[in-house]
Design goal:
about 60% strand; Jelly Rolls
């Protein structure tokens, strides 16, 4: 099932104890909240588009075929810096993978 958000959408492709896999799409000009997770690490693999990944407030470009690891409790976000949708695979690993394990530090859409 596709979940729609103000920045784009995501779909859970696989979920088992200890891991979850999502396909995430970020629309042009949009970005995820600056956030961190207490209970999980993430690995992002870019499928298409041009993005800027922020990790601990340091920005770096990311394009198709590149990936980044995000340790637990690390501030991070994805911004679509191009004119086409950004699509990436997110692999979450950890003891708890619920959507309520998100601490938002900044959010363009007023979410807490």
């Amino acid at each position: 099932m596709i979940e729609h958000r103000p920045w784009g959408d995501y779909e859970v492709l696989s979920e088992e104890p200890g891991h979850k896999v999502k396909r995430i799409v970020v629309h042009p000009g949009k970005r995820l909240s600056l956030q961190r997770h207490s209970n999980r690490a993430e690995h992002w693999y870019m499928l298409s588009g041009e993005g800027v990944v922020t990790i601990d407030r340091e920005d770096r470009p990311l394009k198709s075929g590149q990936s980044v690891d995000i340790p637990r409790r690390t501030l991070h976000r994805m911004k679509n810096s191009g004119k086409e949708p950004v699509m990436f695979i997110e692999v979450q690993t950890g003891d708890y993978l619920g959507e309520d394990d998100i601490e938002r530090v900044e959010d363009d859409f007023g979410r807490v």
